[in-house]
Design goal:
532 residues; mainly beta; Rossmann fold; Jelly Rolls; Immunoglobulin-like; 12% helix
């Protein structure tokens, strides 16, 4: 899982997290040595290239969600089930808390996965930068399958390449997304030559980390933030009903700031980050400084930004895990102009402090949309192919996945296969046969008697299969003609108030079949005739 990390404590994923045998056991997890000599110290459950440590925790939720789509525990009475729920998930963090990543980190993560023996690498990421080194790494492992997301820009990848999707190599498969009713999702990239198949990618359920989120989107103005300093001051602004804070065009020599006033506590938290969006239009020599302080204490610099990104917002994620345990933190953004050539200003929006937590309530799931969700469905299907045919290599897996799709005319000309993922179809290409277990019959008996207000009785099941007795239909007949339909209660009892006249009364429980594949058959049963 080359992604934003994984919340390895999530109860629907924990049992499927990969551990490095060369760094596990006998205290090797924390001995500070590179026991397996792979260049990484104590990497017993993967690596984090963003913070360069052995704890690839997930601060955005993206990696946990994609990991769960592939391999959330199944048949355990909890949460959800992944496509391949008995699988080994290797957390390799190359994306930060706002899902941005450095191509060099992605390359290093791919190289690590190959060296560690991963059969399948899921890359729910996309970018416009072509890296010959990353392509070389993928090509160096022809038996390893790389599953890539096509991207979410509504673009034709044949003409506007997206990587790693567009790498032309026999061991990489690229995935577009389909919507609720089939057909291409309105956000999905496509490409008849560059994208292989599509898979569902709208409102896909997946697990997410237990995050502590402290968010300010400034939609209601400054709120709990204050401004100060000298020169041009910060202030609230809106664009199409979205709020943000800004300096606007500023004066020479400006040294002003906007600061939070509500203390943030990181007590009991871990893997914390400060995330925000910024748009900067700075003059030469001017800087945006991000700072942190304890209430009443001095300000400490977290980051300095000198770059301009003019007409688009840049997602920033700053690691503040070194502040874990502090209970009174304030944050501020400070514009310092050197008096030479001022610029058009700085915008800040969506400031959030996020931390992981080990406390799960069972509610940590969400729906997400994107080719990032479509790709792990294909990766999970590939894992099932590997479990069915352990010796299968990447090109054969791709052939099975592409050949086994459900054709969809709406995907013709948009993806090479012209179809959407069909897991059973891919397995059938390899010779698998769908097994439908035989029906299970459940014998029943019905009794009927007269009551003070009418008729009543009881449905029993010979083998105690409760579903054939509780809440099932009973038909009352008089002299062979139906006169009343009713349902049993949870104990199989039924009663009906009616005027009983002379005749022969019979209670009948018709045959009922349940289940789409293996059917539990509640056999038909009739009572003895009750003569009135």
């Amino acid at each position: 899982m080359v992604d934003s990390g994984i919340a390895f404590e999530h109860p629907d994923i924990a049992s499927n997290i990969w551990t490095n045998p060369g760094e596990t056991g006998g205290g090797r997890e924390t001995n500070g040595r590179d026991d397996d000599r792979n260049g990484y110290v104590d990497d017993w459950r993967g690596w984090d290239w963003v913070t360069d440590d052995n704890r690839p925790a997930d601060l955005s939720g993206h990696g946990t969600h994609t990991a769960g789509v592939i391999g959330a525990d199944g048949n355990d009475g909890f949460g959800m089930a992944g496509v391949a729920w008995d699988v080994s998930l290797m957390p390799l963090r190359a994306l930060d808390g706002v899902d941005n990543g450095d191509p060099d980190d992605v390359t290093a993560a791919f190289r690590y996965a190959i060296a560690a023996g991963a059969d399948i690498v899921n890359a729910s990421l996309a970018g416009t930068d072509m890296s010959s080194e990353l392509l070389s790494v993928i090509q160096s492992a022809p038996d390893t399958l790389f599953v890539a997301a096509a991207g979410n820009e509504q673009a034709n990848n044949d003409f506007t390449p997206s990587y790693p999707c567009n790498y032309q190599t026999s061991n990489l498969i690229c995935v577009a997304a389909t919507g609720f009713r089939g057909g291409l999702a309105n956000f999905s990239n496509y490409g008849e030559a560059s994208v292989d198949l599509a898979a569902p990618g709208v409102a896909i359920l997946g697990p997410v980390p237990a995050l502590t989120q402290l968010l300010d989107d400034f939609d209601n103005g400054l709120g709990s933030w204050v401004t100060g300093g000298s020169g041009t001051q910060w202030g609230p602004a809106t664009y199409e009903e979205d709020g943000y804070v800004t300096t606007g065009p500023y004066e020479n020599g400006t040294d002003s700031w906007v600061s939070s006033t509500e203390p943030v506590s990181l007590a009991g938290q871990s893997d914390c980050s400060l995330n925000y969006l910024t748009q900067t239009r700075l003059g030469s020599g001017d800087v945006l400084v991000t700072e942190v302080s304890s209430v009443g204490g001095p300000w400490t610099q977290l980051a300095v930004r000198r770059f301009n990104n003019f007409d688009f917002y840049k997602s920033i994620s700053l690691d503040i895990s070194h502040l874990t345990g502090r209970t009174d933190l304030l944050f501020r953004f400070r514009l310092q102009a050197d008096g030479q050539s001022p610029g058009d200003g700085v915008d800040i929006d969506d400031v959030a402090v996020e931390c992981t937590s080990t406390v799960y309530t069972g509610e940590e799931y969400s729906g997400a949309s994107g080719t990032s969700e479509a790709a792990p469905l294909v990766a999970g299907a590939a894992a099932l192919l590997k479990s069915y045919a352990p010796q299968i290599k990447a090109p054969a897996m791709i052939d099975a996945l592409v050949s086994g799709v459900d054709p969809d005319p709406r995907l013709e000309g948009l993806v090479a296969s012209g179809g959407r993922l069909n897991v059973m179809g891919a397995l059938e290409v390899l010779g698998a046969v769908e097994f439908i277990p035989p029906d299970i019959p459940h014998a029943r008996s019905v009794t009927l008697k007269r009551t003070k207000k009418g008729l009543g009785g009881l449905v029993k099941v010979t083998d105690s299969f409760a579903s054939c007795a509780a809440g099932v239909e009973v038909l009352i007949k008089r002299n062979g003609r139906p006169i009343r339909r009713l349902e049993t209660n949870d104990s199989g009892v039924f009663r009906v108030a009616l005027k009983v006249r002379r005749g022969r009364y019979v209670a009948v429980a018709p045959e009922v079949r349940t289940g789409a594949y293996r059917a539990d058959v509640c056999l038909k049963a009739s009572s003895k005739a009750l003569k009135i």
